[in-house]
Amino acid sequence: MAVLVLAYLVMCLLCGIIVAAYPSLRSRYHDAFERVHRFSGWAVVLMFWPLLLTFSSAQQHSMGQFLIRQPTFWILLILTLAIIQPWTKLRRVKVTPEKLSSHAIRLHFDFANPKLGQGISISQHPLRDWHSFASFTDKYDTPDSKFSLVVSKAGDFTGDIIANPPQHVWKRSVPLYGFGSGIGPCLSFLFDLDAAPTMRVLWQTRTPEQTYGQRVIDLVHKMDPDPVILDTTKGGRIDMLPLAIKMYHEFEAEAVCVISNPKMTKHLVYELERRGILAAGPIFDS
């Protein structure tokens, strides 16, 4: 009976995770999805232990002999350790906020030196929302700190960070690669300009100077001395495809990296690949 009850509880939690992950629900209630996924996932792993132990106690062999011969036991053990390991590196770190505008903030850190393409996951409370951001070096304009990240307003978490700049945040020392959106991931190339490939930057955003500040604009110019920066408040949002194709051919580029919202990213990557141009973009599955 105990095995049956535990099995049904596990199934209910797994069904809850599946429902919360439905694309439209996940997009609309992203913070709730993350909590359901995290806490239900932990609960499932936790309940698998008594489920496995209860099942093994009913076997003819001793519990120890039965468990060490079961792949389920070793998989569950590895899974449990994999969940625990990142939390052993949980740290509360100091952050120096630099409010850029009502839409963006830059957070400066000095606890590490990330590498090209590496980001960090931060939270204002370790058991609540965790969000990952691309990092970039501060050596060009803020030598007092080691690296920083740009947070743009895109939900409750980022909105609260901007409205109430934190002095400390929680972080887990687990390497993350390929995270972030907007101009942040592009600025990651500043970690090593000598090793970074030559590139052209095509950036379309709203009031770039007012939103991100002149210092961020200057960093963009370090990656590309002549970037194409389009202010959507002046000419409206335009189709990036013709410009991207034009710059691709003029620059004789090897590939095009698209970092935008899901709709624009899918559109550009598809249209570029349809024309035989190597293109890549994020899958938005964070």
What best-fitting shape do the alpha-carbon axes yield? elongated
Going by helix content, strand content and strand pairing, the class is: alpha+beta
Radius of gyration from CA coordinates: 23 Å
Order of helices and strands: HHHHHEEEEEEEHEEHEHEHHEHE
Which percent band covers the strand fraction?
A: 15-25%
* CATH topology (level 3) name of the largest domain: Elongation Factor Tu (Ef-tu), domain 3
How much helicity do the residues have?
A: 40-55%
Write the CATH homologous superfamily of the largest domain: Translation factors
The total of helices stands at 11
Mean pLDDT: 87
CATH architecture descriptor text of the largest domain: Beta Barrel
The total of beta strands comes to 13
Under the CATH scheme, which class of the largest domain? Answer: Mainly Beta
User: Could you give the distance between the termini?
Assistant: 38 Å
Which stretches of 5+ consecutive residues score pLDDT under 50?
none
- Let me know the largest β-sheet: 5 strands, antiparallel
Whole-number total of structural domains: 3
Keywords: Membrane, Transmembrane, Transmembrane helix
GO cellular component, one term: plasma membrane
Transmembrane segments: 6-25, 37-55, 67-84
GO biological process, one term: sexual sporulation resulting in formation of a cellular spore
